[in-house]
Specification:
Order of helices and strands: HHEEHH
Number of helices: 4
Distance between the termini: 56 Å
Number of strands: 2
Strand order of the largest sheet: 1-2
Radius of gyration: 24 Å
Shape: elongated
Helix content: over 70%
């Protein structure tokens, strides 16, 4: 929360001095993304989603063996 507070103060100071909303917008975005719900924050979720969809390579195996095995498993459960 300290970083968010410092960014907010810096953003307000830059708004007052230079009439630019850039730093205030960055501070607001950071504060929004670090809101926590049950030990998880939005920023952590976005990081994990980025790693899952972009960072890690996904491996999908398609073939007759998996399909045949899946059908055999269904027959055994009945």
């Amino acid at each position: 929360m300290t970083i968010g507070g410092l960014l907010a103060v810096f953003g307000v100071a830059m708004l007052a001095q230079f009439r630019t909303l850039l730093f205030a917008a960055i501070a607001a975005m950071y504060l929004f993304l670090t809101i926590c719900f049950d030990e998880a924050c939005i920023l952590d979720f976005l990081r994990k989603a980025g790693v899952y969809f972009i960072g890690k390579s996904q491996l999908y195996r398609w073939g007759k063996w998996e399909v045949g095995r899946h059908k055999a498993d269904k027959k055994q459960k009945k």
